[in-house]
Amino acid sequence: MSSLKSTIRCREITPADLEAVADLLTRGFSGRRRGYWLEGLRRQAAREFPAGYPRLGYMLDHDGTPVGALLLIYSERKSQAQPQIWCNLSSWYVAPAFRNYAPMLTKIAQRLGHVSYVNISAARTTWPIIEAQGFGAYCKGLFLSVPALSHTERRARVEIVSGDSAMIDGLPADEAALLLRHARYRCLSIVVRSERGAIPFVLQPARMRRGLIPLPAMQLVYCRDVADYAACAGAIGWFLAKRAKIAVLIDANGPLPGLVGLYTERRGRKYFKGPRRPRLGDLSDTELVVYGP
User: Fold this and answer.
1) What is the rounded CA–CA span in Å between residue 216 and residue 241?
2) pLDDT tens, 134-146?
3) Are 117 and 89 in contact (CB under 8 A)?
4) Residues 293, 268: Cα–Cα separation, whole Å
5) Could you give the CA distance from residue 280 to residue 204 in angstroms, rounded to a whole number?
6) Closest CA relative to residue 139, chosen from 247, 254, 255
7) CATH classification of the domain holding 252
């Protein structure tokens, strides 16, 4: 062990490390292929991110070889006071022989007090560890809605936003940019236009797992407020039904008023740590879209 101490260090992941980090994560996550990791890492390396923060995250380097990695996806969100920095802690893995050095990764990744950290894919077995690190659950489960069974607003129509659109009428510039950016991530960005105005949404095909009804489903990635989704659910439901999608998964802490569906806590718990509590209905610029479901 003393020989390892002299050669191992924690450093930022660079674009030159992508192939080796993809190999490491493929070994660590048996359900993911190497192509999934490499494509996601390349997408993360190319995306815009706040200056002064890691582009990709940190790795444990043993003689030039990654033996541990923690991916960090930084984003900046606008507010009335000042920009808010958010960080999605994603895809943590350390090779068994180097597990004693794992705290080096988690400590350096959470050291900034002004950053709001989120973990949206914590396995149930890791919940006690995450909570011991000071994280609290902001989302306890998922609501599987069947939107076509909900109320449809009069004269509501759904408009698809493509990644090469020049502008989106009726939306502020930052929100339009979010929809365009996520369309380029191969999400489904839409605007529902009705008497209430232009209401934006981002959805993505869901990866259904054991414990949930196996319906063809989408995941709600972004909305201004879950109440907006409830108000537009009928129009969205018929739009999705024509594309062979029946259900929409929504982060929730219980059954959602105005929606037909099922609430479960078997999946979907999400954690945060920092000055701002995330709101339900916003998973934009997280691993869910950068890497895929």
Assistant:
1) 10
2) 999 999 999 999 9
3) yes
4) 13
5) 16
6) 254
7) 3.40.630
